[in-house]
Design a protein that fits this description.
The chain has 263 residues and is mainly alpha-helical. The protein has eight helices and no strands. Helix 3 runs parallel beside helix 5, helix 6 packs antiparallel against helix 7 and helix 7 runs antiparallel to helix 8. The longest helix is centred in the middle third of the chain and has 40 residues. The chain is elongated and about 95 Å long.
Length: 263
């Protein structure tokens, strides 16, 4: 089923970073394993029904389909709740931004819970097909909500790292400024040049993050193909932004080592 592949691609691997999200992560992994099994059972039952077309195989296929659809909703809901925990833990997100994405997640959870209620009322394979189509018709919105949230979480983590970096950089600048005249002219020129280079890398980081944030905002209302392209660009931008910070942090370490000695 093509939609299964889409679900697998949609749900990005996320590890639990702290105790408060560890249970949500375990729940997600459990639901993932259960769904894979129920989907496998569904495929077997469907093939049996298409082969024999008996009332028994039809009943078995219906029950297997209902279980698969129910656990698909449960899997997506578990992943959304994991994202919600990640939002709560993210130190780089402001409260307004946090509330925005929590609302986004809550709306999708409500949709899935409503859809799961409809699945429980399925009485025929035709009803099952309709229920599955109802979720698939909402897929663009669901994927957009998830990917916007994943992007915001990653950008929030980067923002937190950048704030810590800025504090250290400001301290380094203050030390160089306070001791101007203490160092030999050649070393002072080197320190000034290093600070300029570090600041330039920090500027490159900010430019990359700003572009990536704009791409994340454009995920709203876009088609699946457009989302795939933009989400790939967002992931690339986040990786490049992180690398800028890594490089700049390495330069800061060099600056700190140079400041330990006057010559």
């Amino acid at each position: 089923m093509k939609f299964l592949l889409s679900i697998m691609l949609l749900i990005m691997p996320i590890s639990a970073a702290s105790a408060s999200s560890s249970q949500a992560y375990k729940d997600y992994l459990y639901q993932f394993d259960v769904y894979r099994q129920k989907y496998s059972d569904f495929k077997v039952a469907k093939n049996e029904y298409l082969k024999f077309r008996t009332l028994t195989s039809q009943t078995t296929a219906l029950e297997a389909t209902k279980l698969m659809l129910s656990h698909r909703d449960a899997l997506l809901r578990a992943y959304l709740l994991l994202l919600a925990e990640k939002i709560n833990e993210n130190p780089g997100m402001g409260q307004i931004e946090r509330n925005t994405y929590q609302t986004l997640i809550r709306n999708e959870v409500v949709f899935l819970e409503g859809h799961s209620s409809l699945v429980s009322q399925i009485g025929s394979l035709e009803d099952a097909t309709k229920a599955s189509n109802d979720l698939q018709s909402h897929y663009d919105v669901l994927q957009s909500s998830m990917r916007q949230t994943i992007s915001a979480i990653s950008l929030g983590e980067l923002s937190h790292l950048a704030k810590s970096f800025d504090i250290v950089l400001a301290d380094g600048k203050a030390i160089v400024s306070a001791n101007r005249g203490t160092f030999l002219p050649e070393k002072q020129a080197t320190l000034d040049r290093w600070i300029l280079q570090i600041s330039n890398v920090r500027t490159l980081y900010q430019q990359k993050v700003d572009i990536t944030r704009r791409l994340a905002e454009e995920l709203r209302g876009s088609t699946i193909d457009e989302q795939n392209q933009r989400f790939s660009a967002i992931q690339k931008g986040i990786a490049e932004g992180r690398q800028y910070l890594v490089n700049a942090t390495g330069y800061l370490h060099e600056l700190g080592g140079a400041l330990r000695f006057q010559n």
